[in-house]
Specification:
about 170 residues, mainly alpha, two-stranded antiparallel ribbon, 6 helices, disordered N terminus, DUF4142, DUF4142 domain-containing protein, Ferritin-like
Length: about 170
């Protein structure tokens, strides 16, 4: 699968449900126009993690101070849009987990260099969490397109972690 095609686009996840409604679902079904999008249960962990990475990166596009933070946020938003599309969740409403919602609230409260550091920490943790999820789906997932996205995603996550850790060291001084 062409990585550029995976990163090229797709529409943003339309919206996320409030954290109070974020219960781990066996299947997530949300309205998309007149049709419904049903998400295979095995895809939900990857999409939940992606929802957090996307929402925190959308916030970083607005609040980030460092050019590295802003550039990474742009990259992450585009990637999560592509992953949602590959996973058949384009336009689906994937709820934030409670822990992710709490982290997002902390990021919303942070400003300046403290925001950048907190964003990078959250992205590192989110990517470390996402790696085994995508590795598992790449190995045993049922949807060939999503499996391909996860196969490419594992190496992308590794690259992102190198970048994020480097940016984090720069923020520390």
């Amino acid at each position: 699968m062409d990585r550029r095609q995976l990163l090229a686009g797709g529409a943003a996840i339309a919206s996320l449900l409030p954290a109070a409604q974020a219960l781990r679902a066996q299947e997530a079904t949300q309205a998309q126009g007149d049709a419904a999008v049903t998400i295979e249960a095995a895809k939900v962990p990857a999409l939940e993690g992606g929802a957090f990475l996307m929402q925190s990166s959308l916030l970083a596009q607005q609040k980030g101070q460092s050019s590295n933070v802003k550039a990474f946020a742009d990259l992450e938003v585009a990637e999560q849009q592509a992953v949602a599309r590959a996973f058949g969740a384009e336009g689906a409403q994937v709820p934030l987990r409670e822990d992710h919602a709490a982290l997002l609230q902390q990021l919303q409260a942070a400003e300046g260099a403290a925001f950048d550091a907190a964003y990078l920490d959250a992205q590192i943790a989110g990517h470390e969490e996402a790696r085994p999820i995508h590795a598992d789906y790449a190995e045993s997932g049922q949807d060939p397109m999503a499996r391909g996205a996860s196969m490419v995603g594992v190496t992308g996550i590794d690259s992102h972690l190198v970048m994020l850790r480097s940016f984090r060291q720069q923020v520390e001084g």
